[in-house]
Amino acid sequence: MHEVYLSNLVIGAGGVFIVGGMIQLFCQALEVRPAKRQRMRAELSFKNWSFRSISPGAMMIGLGALLVGGGHFV
To answer: Model pTM greater than 0.85?
Structure first.
């Protein structure tokens, strides 16, 4: 059996946080509107961004970076 080290778990959790934060920011920037003929139109729009709207994604990326960087010290 392979041994599972705590540092690998911490680094993996950090990677998950980074990817989750990037997905959060992408979904925040995606603007979906109805278009002609019952279709949906999706665009990237940064005009709706504010500190309050992007702070969860930014905190997830920051926490993930700390976990990935500090995982070797565990």
So the answer is: no
Decide: residue 3, CB within 10 A, 0-12 exposed, 13-18 middle, 19+ buried: exposed
Q: How far is CA 8 from CA 3, 5, 22, 57, 59, in A?
A: 10, 5, 21, 23, 21
- Tens-level pLDDT at each residue, the chain (74 residues): 567 788 899 999 999 999 999 999 999 888 888 888 888 888 888 887 888 989 999 999 999 999 999 988 87
